[in-house]
Structures are given as structure tokens and as C-alpha cells.
Amino acid sequence: MNEGQSALSRTDARRVIRRPRLTRLLDATRSRRITLVAPAGYGKTILARQWTSQRPRTGIWFRATPASRDVAALALGLAHAAEGVMDGASKRLRGRLRRSQAPNAEASVLGALLGEDLARWPDNVWLVIDDYQHLADEPTAEWFVDALVAKGNIPLLVTSRVRPVWATAKHLLYGEVAEFGRNVLAMTHEEAARAIRSEKPGALHGLVALAEGWPAVIGLASLVEPPLLVASEDVPNSLHSYFAEELFQGLDQELQWSLAQLSVAPTIDSQLTLSLLGERSNEVLEQGYLTGFLTRDAGSYDLHPLLRQFLRTKFANADSDARETTINAVAASALRRESWDETFALVAEFGLGKLLGDLLTRALDDVLAGGRLATLEQWLDEAYRLIPGEEIVQLVEIELAFRKGRWAETEDKARQLARRVPHHHPLASKALFRAAQVAQLDDRQAESFTLLSEARARSKTQSDLRRALWTRFLTLTDLEEPDLAATALHELEALPQESIEDAIRLSQGPLHLAARWGGVREALERHRGALGLLDRTSDPLVRSGFLQSYGTALVLAGRYEDARECADRQVAEATRSGLDWVRPHGLELKALAQIGMRDFDEAQSGLRTAYKLAENSDDRHAQANASAISARVLLAQGESSRAIQVLERSRFLSAGPGMEGELRSIRALALASLGHLDQATLEVNASAAITSHLEARGLRAYAAVLIALAHTGSGDELSDQLSAALSESAVTGNADSFVASYRVFPDLLSVISNSGLELDEFLLRPVRTYDKGLADKAGLTARQPPVITGEGLTKREEEVLSLIRLGLSNRQIAHTLWIAESTAKAHVRNIFGKLGVRSRTEAALFRNDSDS
Predict the structure, then answer these.
(1) d(CA 747, CA 718)
(2) DSSP, res 133
(3) Per-residue model confidence (pLDDT) at position 755
(4) How far apart, in whole angstroms, are the C-alpha atoms of residue 681 and residue 665?
(5) Which of 90, 197, 247, 370 has the lowest tally of Cβ within 10 angstroms?
(6) How far apart are CA 721 and CA 732, in angstroms?
(7) In sequence order, which residues have a C-beta less than 8 Å from that of residue 40 and are 6 or more positions away?
């Protein structure tokens, strides 16, 4: 063994004292909440590490900092630590925080949410929160911890200088919380003797008495060769300073200054020490450890808080230029590592205005994504003091106002910033985008489009450009501009994908476009695979947005069961993520699916809830939509007069041209069914003048058919009009308007059957599935083919038949079974021949003897 190893062994033996007395006490504790509460220097952290490292027990570590008073920062930190035990533990929490307006106000909810996700936490794994005292100044942070542990029943070990608020006298009395305080954690004479080998027992007794068993003092004394004792009038704090000074003066001046420099750094890592100390970095770290100033754990180094405080006094007395150089180097390292909280701590301590500007610029998106609004508000207060006139400060104000729902303030400040900065300033696009969002929320779509176009032109980054293009695309669909919307979508598709969210939106876009103007079947087939991507994003808005577009397309295609499942998923997503404004849209989507499935009572119940939620949030579009769908429930039940009354109540809800056009189309259908043909015609024409959106277009096409039927009863003109309406339904993929129309006027099916018009299989499927009685009456039920006793289906053909019954196309069948599309077509032809059927619908309805 060489001299260095020998010295290292002596240092380890003295610094890290095994204290079996305390570990036995912890072993004997039955409580699942344990607190080690004492001032700094009582060995709380070392004891926690020793105890949780004893098998079969293990510990998951989280060290609190002043930044942890922000509930969002605390929640993310604990969730990140929990990922080491349960993969994906932070996913729901991150999604909720991305959209929360006030995480601190939701502390208990967020704690319970994470607790639910950690419900299967292993019994032998302890969650350790070190330096818990940093949470004590913020009650909501403690509420979060209490809710987390109570919900998940996670074993918790806390080291703290103050007692947690949830460790009440009652909990301590009943043993629900076990507390180890200063008296228990103080070193006994026997433990001190193991740390200090003294030939004078009386002197050792005197040291222990003077130090009051304070392990930090005794630990330092053990490093002084031989231990130097002081007069009895010194108190423990003075003893600590005395022994620290003795150690410090034993070092050479270069090492002294290097250790003083390291005391400025919140985190000591290899990159920092290399930039700060150069080629001497490894030597300094090793010598700092051997002399007792630095601690080491798994190759990383740290300073005990008391020694850090001592070294800071040495740093403060150094040359000002040397201090400034050190501070700048440490700050640059923290910013480079994206250690935002460490960077801000240096800003606040040393008044570094330029560093704060850099921090806000680089960290803003990340901090907002984590929901750390309290942190951002703290940074903003410091910015008012150090850099009040900077543009980035104004952008932070805009982002905070937007997240907290202060729309007028957001738009006003965003417009001011966009006017103030030069055209190509990197903040211009961000400000314009926020102003556009507010205009969009206020149903000022044309104004929003203008702002988004300017944001697009002034974008300096791919992310800013992508954000502007996506919202611009959505705005163009609301403005009834299909060609421009398609162009905007193509422009977005041309950008390189940077995230899973980009991939999801590139599937949502075509679905959204198809639901507005047609191509529904093709879009559903092409983008159904995107459903599998949703679990890979933590952004609940991206997930719920896709589910809304996909579910709407499913409703239009008459795939009502699938649409209901999609809506249930969207409602659950909104509930979990706290997106209260999304819930009405999910409930309305579900109601449309339930109408298709003839579940009218459940549809009405959900719509009542949706309307109340929309009313509470002043969402006029959702209110108008709930009224429109409620009217459709009544129409499907033959209550056209009541439907018109419901629609009358929505006349004063300004909800955009698409919604207004749909309301007028529904009214036209109701009026036509009641024989009010002139009024119905006016509504058809009004709807056509307002919107070209698919649902409104389909409903008014069938309203026009009913009007023509009432006028002529039959004839080529009616046949042409009906044929055109059916053809458009099939081509655009809008089966839902057809279903809504024949339920208002069931004789429409007989008219179709008697006219000799052949219904597309796409339109026949919902009729035969959900309205079999009407299909039978109109003679649209597929004939039951005779039982075939000849050659049976092969195993592969049976698989293909099962997929035909699910409504899959040849291409989808080929994709599912991993065969060529031409092979799938051949299998379908063979199935038709063996079953004696002529269409996919008849094949889907075919049943043989074994089926019955």
C-alpha cells in the first residue's frame, strides 16, 4: 500500500464513522416516515446513506434546494428521482405541469397525482429527501410531499434542520412519524473515541462535552494531528471554526485559494474544476479530500455546508479581480450545464445582470414547459432590480400573463414588444405568436391570421417557425380557406421533424383538413398508426388535439364505437392533465358517437355536463356545439319541433362561421322535416353562404333533398339531387350526415331503394349496424347467402374475412397481415366466390352453420 492510499484509508476511517447505535434504532422503527432533525453538522446525510445502503433496503435520493420551494420544481425533481425505480413515473405529472396556471395552488392535487403513479412502489425502497429544511418556508411544498406519501404509501426518510409541518405531535405520539432529533444524533463518548485516538481520555471527555456531541466538530478535530483542544469557554460553533482554521492553515497558499474558489460553486464537477484550476484540478480535488475539506461519493465531490461557509469567508477577503474571474467561470459552467437554479443562485448572490439576461433567454422555454411559474416570478423580481429595461424581461412578463390567463395584458405587452424590437429580433416572433393566440381565443380569426403571418415572416428558429405555421394552418381552416390551409400544411410538412410532437401533428393536420373538406376515409387509413405515438409525448395538449381530430373523423365515417373509445380517452386525458376547457369538447365528441349508436339518453346527459362546463369557462364555441348536438339528439328521435327550440337558444352565441353554418344546416333539416319548406330553403342558402365545412355541407345537401322530395315527390330532378348527395357522402367520407338525415326522415331509405340508386358499402354499413329495422323496411338488408357446403375457407381467408368484418380496406388488410395488397385482393375475390356473395358488406354479414 502506498502512502497516498494509506492516508486515504486513515481519512475515510476518521470522517465516516459507523454508528451502529443509530442504525439499530432505525432498524427498530416501524414507521414508514422517518425524520432526522438537527442543525447542520449532525451527520444526518451520512447516516441516511449508511442506513439505506444496508440490504435488502435501498434508497432513492433527492436533495432539496431553495429552488424546491417551487412546487413544480420539487415535483419534477422527485419524479425524476422516482424514474430510477418506476420507468415513466413522471409522464402524467409533466403533462399536467405543462399547462397548469398555478402549480403551487395545486400542490396537494399534484402530489396525489404522482402518488397514484407510484402506487406500486417497492416496500424495500426508501425515498430520501435530503436538506428538507429548504421546503419549510413554502407550506405548499410540504403539502405536496404529504399528499405524495399519503397517496402512494411510499417509505420516506427526511433529513432536515427543522421539523416538517406534517410531522405533527399527534403523528409522533402514535408512531406514524418517527423523529430522531439532536439529542439522539449527537455523538456519545464511545463514538467520539472511535473517531479520535487520544492518549488523554480526560481531554477527549472535555472535547465531547464542549462540542455537545456535535459530530461536525468532532470530525474536524479528528483530522487535526494531534487533536488540539481549546479552553472550556469556547462554544461548539467556535470550536468548529477553530479546527477548520487549524486545518486550513496547514495547507499551502495555492491549495487554500483553490478550495476557496470551489466554495463558490454549488456543484463541483470535472468540467468546472478543469476550467477553474486547469491541469491542477485533479490534484486539488484529491488534496482537498485527503485534508478533509471535500467529501467524495462515487467519484463526485462536495463541500459540507459548514466548511463551505468557512471557505466563503476566505474567498471574500481575496483580491477583487481574482474573485470576479472565479465567479464568472463558475457562472459560465452552471449555464453551460443548463443548471438553471445554480445559475440563478449566483445571479442573486453577486448581482450578475448580464448572466440573468442569458439565463432568461436560454431557460425560459424549459422552465415554462416544467410549469415552474413560481421560479419564473422570482427570476422576474430579480430582473426588475438588475435589468429592468431588457426585451427578454418583457417577454417573461408576456409568458407569465398568458399562462395565468390574463389575455388583455398578454396581447397588449406582446404587441408593444413586437413594435419595439427590430424586424429580425429573435423575440419578435415569440411575442407576435402570443398576441395571435389571444386574438384566436377571442374569435378574432382574421386578426390572428395577420399576426401569425407576421410571426412566420419574423421567425428566427425552426421551433418558432413550426409553431407559427401550425397555428396559422388551424386558423386558415377556421377562416374557410381550404387551399391556403393545405399550402400551410405542406409548408409545415417540409420542415425537418424535431420531436415526437411534430410527428403527431403532421398526422393530425391531414385528419383535421379531411374533417373540414373531405377525404376522411383516406386520412383515417393513412394516419391511424399515429395513435401509437401518443404515449410517447408528455404534452397533454398534443395528445388531446390529435384525439379530437381523429375522433371527429371517426364520427364522420360512421365508426361510432371507435369514436366513443377515442372520446373516452380524450375526456380521461383532460381530467388527468387538468385541462378543464378540453373536457366539454371530449364530452361533445362522445355524444356524437352515442347518437350514432342510438344511445340517446347517455348523449343528452353528457351534453348537459358539457354545456355547463363550457358556460363556466365562457367557451361560446363549445356552448354552441353542445346546443347543435342536443338538437341532433332530438332530430334522431323524431322531435323536430323541440330541436328547433334548442337551436333558437344558440342564435346569440357567436362561434365562428363553421359552427354557425352547421347550426343553420341542422335547422334546415328540422324545418324541412316539418314541411316548412321556404324557411328550410332560406337556411340551406344561408349555410352555403357561410361555410364550406363538411358536416354543414352534408346536412344541408340532405335538407335540400327533403325539400325537393316535398315539392316533386319523384322525378329525374330529385333522383339527380339525391344521387349527388349520396355520392358526395361516399366520396368525402361523411356517412354521419347521411345517418342524421335518414333518421330525421326514415322514408328517405325507401326512396333510395325504390329509385334504384345503389348505396355505397361505406354508407350501408351504419344503416345495417345501427338501424337494422329501417334497413329491413327499406329492403336494404343484405340477403343471407345460402350455406356453402363446398370448398371451405382457408385459415388465411378466415383471417381476411374477420378483417373485412371490421371494415378494413384491402390496403389495410395487407398492412395488418404483412402481405402484398394484390395478395389481399386475391383473397377477397376467393372469399366472395366461396361464400356466394357480391360485396364486402354481404361478406361481412355472412354467417355459416357453425356461426349459428
Answers:
(1) 14
(2) G
(3) 80
(4) 10
(5) 197
(6) 16
(7) 161, 216, 304, 305, 306
Closest CA to 846 of 761, 770, 773, 784: 784
**583-596 helix and 560-577 helix, angle to the nearest 10 degrees:** 160
Omega of the bond leading into 226 within 30 degrees of 0 (cis): yes
d(Cα 443, Cα 439) in Å, to the nearest integer?
Answer: 6
For residue 451, what is the DSSP state?
H
Q: Which pLDDT belongs to residue 716?
A: 64
Question: Which position has the grid cell 377525404?
Answer: 519
Residue 157's SS3 state is: strand
What is the distance between the alpha carbons of residues 411 and 248, in angstroms, rounded to a whole number? 58
d(CA 218, CA 176): 33
Edge-to-edge strands, sheet with 178-180: 58-63, 125-130, 156-160, 33-37, 178-180
Helix/strand/coil (H/E/C) assignment for every residue in 631-668: HHHHHHCCCHHHHHHHHHHCCCCCCCHHHHHHHHHHHH
Q: Name which of 145, 143, 200, 190 is nearest 33 in CA terms.
A: 145
Q: What are phi and psi of 178, to 5 degrees?
A: -105, 125
Strand partners, 301: 268, 296
Q: What is the pLDDT of residue 12?
A: 46
For residue 22, the Cα-to-chain-centroid distance in whole angstroms is 42
Longest distance between any two alpha carbons in the chain, whole Å: 121
Query: Pairing mode, if any, of strands 58-63 and 294-297?
Result: unpaired
The Cα 192–Cα 17 span in angstroms is: 9
- CA-based nearest residue to 395, from 355, 346, 435: 435
Task: Give the pLDDT confidence of 382-423 residue by residue, as tens digits.
Answer: 999 999 989 999 999 999 999 888 989 999 999 999 999 999
The contacts of residue 645 (CB under 8 Å, 6+ apart) are none
Residue in this structure with the C-alpha cell 433567454, named with its chain if needed: 361
177 vs 149: CA distance, rounded Å: 12
DSSP string covering 48-98: HHHHHTSTT-EEEEEE--GGGGSHHHHHHHHHHHHTTTSTTTTHHHHHHHH
Please list the alpha-helical segments (H only) found in 597-639: 600-616, 620-636
The single residue listed with the C-alpha cell 492518549 is: 199
CB contact burial 254-285 (16+ within 10 A = b; e otherwise): ebbbbbbbbbbbbebeeebbeebbeeebeebb
Residue ranges of the chain with per-residue pLDDT less than 70 = 1-17, 189, 191-240, 242-243, 298-299, 651-655, 713-716, 782-791, 838, 841, 847-852
